[in-house]
Amino acid sequence: MAENGDGLGTVPEHERILQEIESTDTACVGPTLRSVYDDQPNAHKKFMEKLDACIRNHDKEIEKMCNFHHQGFVDAITELLKVRTDAEKLKVQVTDTNRRFQDAGKEVIVQTEDIIRCRIQQRNITTVVEKLQLCLPVLEMYSKLKEQMSAKRYYSALKTMEQLENVFFPRVSQYRFCQLMIENLPKLREDIKEISMSDLKDFLESIRKHSDKIGETAMKQAQQQKIFNVALQKQNNVKFGKNVYINDRIPEERNEVELKRGFEEEDENEEEVLTVQDLVDFSPVYRCLHIYSVLGDEETFENYYRKQRKKQARLVLQPQSNMHETVDGYRRYFTQIVGFFVVEDHILHVTQGLVTRAYTDELWNMALSKIIAVLRAHSSYCTDPDLVLELKNLIVIFADTLQGYGFPVNRLFDLLFEIRDQYNETLLKKWAGVFRDIFEEDNYSPIPIVNEEEYKVVISKFPFQDPDLEKQSFPKKFPMSQSVPHIYIQVKEFIYASLKFSESLHRSSTEIDDMLRKSTNLLLTRTLSSCLLNLIRKPHIGLTELVQIIINTTHLEQACKYLEDFITNITNISQETVHTTRLYGLSTFKDARHAAEGEIYTKLNQKIDEFVQLADYDWTMSEPDGRASGYLMDLINFLRSIFQVFTHLPGKVAQTACMSACQHLSTSLMQMLLDSELKQISMGAVQQFNLDVIQCELFASSEPVPGLQGDTLQLAFIDLRQLLDLFMVWDWSTYLADYGQPASKYLRVNPNTALTLLEKVHRGMKDTSKKNNIFAQFRKNDRDKQKLIETVVKQLRSLVNGMSQHT
């Protein structure tokens, strides 16, 4: 029952599927049939049965329909057979009619074909004319392009190419000749690029060769402008009554001549003022830039141009190895650099983007560092101050020229301050030679004058004021020697020379005043002081010359205030200004005087030693000569003459020299007595030595130098005097009894000294006794004296030993 129930349920489903199959396109039957198999097992058998039943029903319906229309079909076939006979007749008639028409239309066909051919030819001719009219402008433009290439009008040729590509070629692009032209244009563009690049290379080579001429012209114009500005400023100052310091007026006469010469040159060149455009043809750059701009490759051109110019910059900045030898070497170096940057500045202002301000600034900073390093290295080799000064002037013109083109040059002026120090060093070396020559040529004697004219000549050279000398009648003498006015003049010349370097440095008067004073201080404290010290220490400089040197330094010291006034008059900076540097000439000349004084003391002692070495005592003489030794009298006479010369020296110097001489003479005489090589001395020799010491004491008491108080000089010989008195009086008992007492008569006699001399005298007495032993009556006295001497010797030795133990 269950199965029957399932079978009844599937019948309506099968009918639905059959309806879908009948009403659906055969391409979509698959899913419908699949549903038959997807339902229940064995359902497809039942569906097949249902399908067979449906087919049988349809066959029955078809058969019924055919049976219903069969008579009508038979009638139609019968009528069709009747019509066939009429159709055959009609076919025959149509065939005949067609034949007749064909025969009649053959001639028309021939004429029609002729007309068609003519029309085709006419149409072709019209088309050809139209196409030729379209192609002719292209060919004309291409011909124009060739003419422009031949005439080297490359920029116009590129414009023509653009017109061909944008306007003409699109109209005739289907033709082969157009394709050939299109293919040829890139080659023409490359040719133009190569040609324009070749022109650019020629231009770069040309400006490299002409850069020195360009720079020379630019520097000359800058210098002329500067001269004009200075003259205009001076004219305004004179017009308004101003007394303002102008850097470029030093020295006044020289600059006036230079200004006049500069204006004359300016007048000569006024008709022909050359510019960078006059010296260089920049058209290759413009053409090349325009060509590359049109080609859309402007960046490549810019990079190439900048790269090549940087290479040229490095070549220009590389100096010759011997550049420092002449000013022309520096001038060529500067003109080439100026020419290079003048060209770059011109390119910057006349082109768009080829050279930028950032690029030129970078290039200038690189060049400036190299320039400063080169100048610092090469200027260090310069030993000629004139060459250094010319180098400074070139640097100033160089800096002013480039500053006029907008390049920063502050570092160059900073370099000038370094070169200024070197310039001062070269000046100091030069003036050291000048001072040495002055000292060599000086006779170290007061300047004689015989008339008023000679007096005025000396006064004009050196600021000397002495009312007493003015009152004296001619002939008379200045106290200083010839070297003093010469040195004063040379110091002023040094100030002028140092001042020359300050021209155009754009510094204030205060700074220039400070520079002048510092350089002058270096001249005085280092150069002149060194020359004076070397002069003082020269062996051939005698006492008279040393005395004159001391007098000279005194007057030079007094003249320092006039040098300060001289600098003040130049710079218009008052000495009362807080930051004004003072001249150190006072200490310089004081040091030189002290050195000369010390040398006087030394040479005086050396002279005394020379005289003492001439002493020829007979230490065995039995009786004195009755007069002082000849060498000593000569020495005293020499000292008197020398101290007479010392009257021109400051009092303390002469007094110190006199005291030093007496003390040295006393010491030399004492050393002569105590010389270890001198083994014995007779009493006669002691008496003769005493006569010499008496002469020394007489000299000391004669006041050889004014100002010494009382017996000050005699105290220099007190040691000798007490020692000789002890032996002359033979007062040993008093000496031994009072030894160590403040009131002792022989307080200055050292036991060791007395012992040494006594032993020498003892040996002399022994030697004398041996020679005189034939006189028997004297033997007892001699023996007593010798015993006394031996006793005194023992006591002296005990004193000496006591002193050594105490020490």
Automatic annotation (TrEMBL):
UniProt keyword terms in alphabetical order: Exocytosis, Transport
Record has ATP-binding as a keyword: no
GO CC, any one term: exocyst
The Exocyst complex component EXOC6/Sec15 N-terminal domain, residue ranges: 50-219
GO biological process, one term: vesicle tethering involved in exocytosis
Pfam family membership, one: EXOC6_Sec15_N
Domain of life: Eukaryota
UniProt domain Exocyst complex subunit EXOC6/Sec15 C-terminal: residue ranges: 412-760
Function (record text): Component of the exocyst complex involved in the docking of exocytic vesicles with fusion sites on the plasma membrane.
Family, as annotated: Belongs to the SEC15 family.
Name of the protein in its database record: Exocyst complex component
Source organism per UniProt: Neomonachus schauinslandi
Taxonomic lineage of the native organism: Eukaryota, Metazoa, Chordata, Craniata, Vertebrata
